[in-house]
Design a protein that fits this description.
alpha/beta, Rossmann fold, 8 helices, globular
């Protein structure tokens, strides 16, 4: 049986491009989407390219949705070789003094608690793989090193909810990497970079093809890094 991968938030942008590239490498792709219609359209596109793609409806903030997705993959595949926690939201990019706790809470529900929920639900299937990879899609905006470096391009981007959610996600990566090492599961954070997507009003300078590169590399690794924070050029400061 070929390797399989589940990607959350994969019906568009970086998630979809990651699915396409992994499909080219022969992975069976479980394309996670909240919206079934958009997900079906994305799956149809991958299938036209000759890839083995299946839609799986999953809302990462919903316990029953995540559990149902895990049960389906378990019934159909019996294992999961790779998990990409890609689903995320930006929240309001406004002055930290003005961002409401409710808005920040929603960002954390999807960007932080969502990946925790998904990893925990799929853990038996990841363990069944024998050598699984988990990739949490983070951002250099979660790097405290970069955010406190006046020479960094991200120094002036002071989004309380989003930035701190990615910092927290990096901490989740470290914790799970330690906990799951004995099970042969590698857990890493990937920074796709400032990418042109509707997430940022298409203001980024990287293409989705470039952005997906580091995620695909970490998914397809057969040895090496765990508990790291990487972009396509280097290890990033926490």
């Amino acid at each position: 049986m070929s390797k399989n991968v589940l990607i959350t938030g994969a019906n568009k942008s970086i998630g979809f491009e990651t699915a396409r590239q992994l499909g080219e490498l022969g992975y069976r792709v479980w394309l996670g989407a909240r919206d079934a219609g958009r997900g079906e359209t994305a799956v149809a596109t991958l299938r036209k390219l000759g890839h083995d793609a299946r839609l799986i409806e999953i809302s990462v903030e919903n316990d029953s949705s995540v559990q149902a997705a895990a049960e389906r993959v378990g019934q159909e595949d019996g294992k999961l070789d790779a998990l990409v926690n890609n689903a995320g939201i930006p929240g309001a990019f406004i002055d930290p003094a003005d961002q409401t706790v409710d808005d920040i809470r929603q960002v954390y529900e999807i960007n932080v608690f969502g990946p925790i929920r998904v990893i925990q639900a799929f853990l038996p299937l990841l363990k069944a793989s024998g050598a699984a990879n988990v990739v949490n899609v983070s951002s250099e905006l979660g790097s405290l090193g970069s955010l406190t470096d006046p020479g960094s391009e991200f120094y002036g981007v002071n989004s309380l909810g989003y930035n701190s959610s990615k910092t927290a996600l990096n901490a989740v990566t470290v914790s799970f990497s330690k906990a799951l090492a004995s099970s042969g599961i590698r857990v890493n954070s990937a920074d796709p970079g400032y990418t042109k997507t509707d997430f940022n009003g298409n203001t980024g300078y990287k293409t989705v093809e470039q952005a997906a590169k580091v995620i695909v590399q970490l998914v397809n690794a057969t040895e090496g890094e765990t508990g790291s924070f990487m972009n396509d050029q280097r290890r990033l400061p926490w």
